[in-house]
Amino acid sequence: MTALLIDRETIRDLLARLEGLTGDARREVIFTAAIESGGIFHGPVAGNAALHLHRIPVVGATEDQAIDAWIRKARDVIAEDLPAEL
Question: Can you give 54-81 as a three-state secondary structure string?
């Protein structure tokens, strides 16, 4: 399997922008990032909200849960020394 190249700097910048934001402000930052990067962010469909941003895919029961899951996974990804295989 080929490792996907992940731009950790872009992810760090996005995480920094999200720091301290809640609710609509946080969703707006994620929605904008998804549009600008060709990602996906949509509300619950068939019980799950989906977020695929900077090669990090997650789902959650709500948009906020999907964002929380993305933040956790993004922090794990940027902490790794080697490119992540997703």
Answer: CCEEEEECCHHHHHHHHHHHHHHHHHCC
pLDDT value at 9 more than 80: yes
Written as six digits, the tokens of 61 are 């029961």
Rounded mean pLDDT of 20-46?
A: 93
- CB count within 10 Å of CB 3 equals 10
| Rounded-to-integer distance, Cα 50 and Cα 59, Å | 5
Question: DSSP letter at 15?
Answer: H
pLDDT of residue 43 exceeding 80: yes
Domain layout of the chain by residue ranges: 8-79
**Closest CA relative to residue 45, chosen from 57, 20, 28, 62:** 62
21 DSSP 8-state letter: -
